[in-house]
Specification:
Elements: H1 2-23, E1 43-61, E2 65-86, E3 90-111, E4 114-136, E5 139-158, E6 162-182, E7 187-198, E8 201-206, E9 209-227
Antiparallel strand pairs: 1-2, 1-9, 2-3, 3-4, 4-5, 5-6, 6-7, 7-9, 8-9
Length: 230
């Protein structure tokens, strides 16, 4: 009899425990969040680029006559620079580049009995610029500006009155902007627009009359950079 009572009591306790366990809420497990590494633009880089450009060359013939000729051409070169990311997403930097190619303007005319031909060709140019931009993770949007330099070859043939050719250094300023995208931690691609304005140059003198010119240019290029230490 006692054994039957004990067995019945044990069954009641087990049933109560099972019912209580069934009423408990189901335990859920939350996965730890996945940490996404944000790209950092700080570091040195080196790269190559290619593009097209042109605008015009203004000529002034001693205040007696003036005119301009449209220029156009292609170029390619390289760049080196350093970026520093600060205050979250802001990026400041400095970049130097040099390009070789041909941005050329030409004129051909005939004013009997004189035939006139001439032009100016910029065979190489470069810049030293500051950059300031804002990074959206791997996308950097920036403005840039600074010092521009280069060289021009100018010739004029107005036989039998005048024939000359001259090479001269150019100095001036440049400004523009661009967008750069980090494809990998080390490799980025960019597209960039720059406007150039060089100082006016005296290119010839005929007695008291001076002939000078002024070169301006718009350029658009694409580039590939390799960043170190990423």
């Amino acid at each position: 009899m006692k054994s039957a009572i004990s067995a019945t009591f044990a069954l009641l306790v087990a049933g109560t425990a099972a019912a209580s366990a069934a009423d408990l809420p189901t335990r859920t497990y939350t996965k730890a969040p996945v940490l996404v590494q944000v790209y950092n633009w700080t570091g040195f880089y080196i790269g190559v680029n290619a593009g097209i450009g042109g605008d015009k060359t203004d000529y002034n013939f001693g205040g007696v006559a003036s005119g301009n000729v449209t220029s156009f051409g292609g170029f390619g070169g390289g760049q080196i620079g350093y970026n520093y990311q600060f205050a979250g997403n802001w990026v400041a930097g400095i970049e130097a580049d040099i390009q070789g190619g041909s941005l050329k303007s030409e004129i051909n005319a005939s004013i009997p009995p004189v035939g006139l031909s001439g032009g100016t060709e910029m065979k190489w140019f470069g810049t030293v610029r500051g950059r300031l931009g804002y990074a959206f993770d791997r996308v950097l949007v920036y403005g840039t500006g600074g010092f521009a330099y280069g060289s021009e070859d100018t010739y004029l043939n107005a036989a039998p009155l005048l024939t000359f050719s001259r090479s001269a250094d150019l100095t001036g300023w440049t400004a523009g902007g661009g967008v750069e995208y980090a494809v990998t931690n080390n490799v980025s691609v960019k597209t960039e627009y720059l406007y150039f304005e060089f100082d006016r140059n005296n290119i010839a003198a005929i007695g008291p009359t001076t002939i000078d010119n002024k070169v301006t240019a718009h350029t658009l290029k694409v580039g590939l950079n390799y960043a170190f230490g990423k």
